[in-house]
């Protein structure tokens, strides 16, 4: 290894660790109830061809291999050491390994940073010792490594009790050991293997991204799967995402904590709608990492993509054994926004020969044939669909049917040479077991339920549709050094900040009392709105702090007097700093536009359905700030309310350009103030008809209070 301190690629280190020339097993034994017994046997069983050093002071040999009393006694320092020993023994053992010149250690043992501050301190000590000895660590609190590509198994999971390891070009890095073993086992049952599986545990030293980087550089890996609980180094994740794309290797991710708490405590709607999962989601979308919500679908997609490297999927043909199955499948694809392929006339003509009139459509129902059995026409059907250049992928939705295994086999045999992406879903239970076996025999992955297959396809479509985000360029005339506030800003202060970034706000001013409100009112156009100014009140209209549609100064004065009374009963004790008199904006579509400064990923801009709809329907789209007008428009288009903006039911389109411009400007504002601004939100932004602009009529912001 190179001298410490100088640059070295982690991939070079990991190559040595994941393809070690020698492995020492601390506590190796014959006892299969112990980790040291199981891992030792797995290593032997799965054909590791390097040197194995069983470390056991009480035995001269094990399974015919010479044992060593301690790590210092091996003929050469082991490239890799694996240990599952009592927690207090880990530190001295790591020290002994480092002293002996070991290159890497897998620490299965838990109760380190996973068990509170004391454990965390002990873990930091392990890292310190390892670094001083130029040794790398995997874990602690992990399940180790399974590398079929290198025939290295440093894992004791019962999932490894299989005849032989299957190698597929799928790499998997998991923050959960149990999940890694579970997925390994499930995949194996379908004849799917991996290049390398790594469980990273507490990531004290080597972390998830280190292994992702290794997999990106690894020739045996074509698709990268990851199970993530927390991101250690967000900037690195972004760099690696770019690199994976450049190499054409899909990176699939399942992230835990999607429904994370913390939202309830958020100050603004933006903060609760733009929690850290959403921030990661926005970053993944921008960088082309395929975020999936299910590990089974992730593996199915990985296995399917690995068969068809680099292939894009934008539409799907359905071939099914049942009309009902086809209809439901079509519905579900449509729900996910995945278009059904439209057959070319030549395809329809070919299918017409075997299918009853009107049946030669997508979905193709094998039941709609003119004569014979479904099994007889399955192959020809697949052939015709596969020959259609406009079809990107085929989904075989198999229900119970006579000779279902024959159907599956014939479809598969026609699909394999056709070289067009396909996914099988076998929906029956036991009745399809023979069909499953046919697929397993052919090394084809399959789903057992529609949901899994559709999720996998949705991931494929997402990956295929990805485009690099347009470069955001700074709009002209933004302030060079905007003034950062402190603490919470009320509506008027927030609007002043927004206005300094060229975001249109309605005019208004703060009055101390009802009489002053009337005087101020005269200086603005009618109708007007009166709002309470109170640092104790966050949602003004909840406590009667907003009165709309005031026709003249007298109405404003009366409203202010009444408002003080209402608030005294609705929120007793709220300190009233004044009354905000403002012009009322003409009605339009209400959006929320906000930016949340994510602790990991920085400012993430959000747009969604605003006003009262915010809490009712979580219709939001996010992107890392700053954004380009193109990205802002794409965000609007993703919203359900986006349809409304486009104009429906006799209403013309809204001023999408104006709304996009506000998103762009808000994103720059938050970008410029990222050192101090926590969150800012405009709710609502009232978007009027095309050419009529958009205006922020309410806003709030939260700045860091200290320095
Ligand atoms: P809060 O969100 O604190 O309850 P808002 O200032 O957002 O208070 O006002 C509540 C609602 O009143 C807004 O969602 C919007 O529908 C309407 N509203 C507020 N100010 C104006 C205005 N100046 N012009 C038109 N509508 C307004
Ligand atoms: Mg509001």
Defining traits:
Rossmann fold, binds adenosine-5'-diphosphate, single chain, alpha/beta, 4 domains, Dna Ligase, domain 1, 30 strands, 707 residues, binds magnesium ion, disordered N terminus
Topology:
Elements: H1 10-18, E1 22-26, H2 35-45, E2 51-55, E3 61-62, E4 65-66, E5 80-83, H3 87-100, E6 104-107, H4 117-132, E7 136-138, E8 144-147, E9 152-154, E10 170-174, H5 177-189, E11 196-199, H6 208-217, E12 223-228, H7 234-246, E13 251-255, H8 269-273, H9 276-287, E14 290-292, H10 295-307, E15 316-320, H11 323-335, H12 345-354, E16 364-365, H13 374-386, E17 393-398, H14 404-418, E18 422-426, H15 433-441, E19 446-447, H16 450-465, E20 488-489, H17 491-500, E21 508-511, H18 514-521, E22 528-533, E23 546-550, H19 553-570, E24 578-583, E25 589-598, E26 602-609, H20 613-616, E27 620-624, H21 629-638, H22 641-645, H23 656-672, E28 677-687, E29 694-696, E30 699-703
Parallel strand pairs: 1-2, 1-5, 5-6, 6-7, 10-11, 10-12, 12-13, 13-14, 15-16, 15-17, 17-18, 18-19
Antiparallel strand pairs: 3-4, 8-9, 8-11, 20-30, 21-24, 22-23, 22-24, 25-26, 25-28, 26-27, 28-29, 28-30
The structure holds adenosine-5'-diphosphate and magnesium ion.
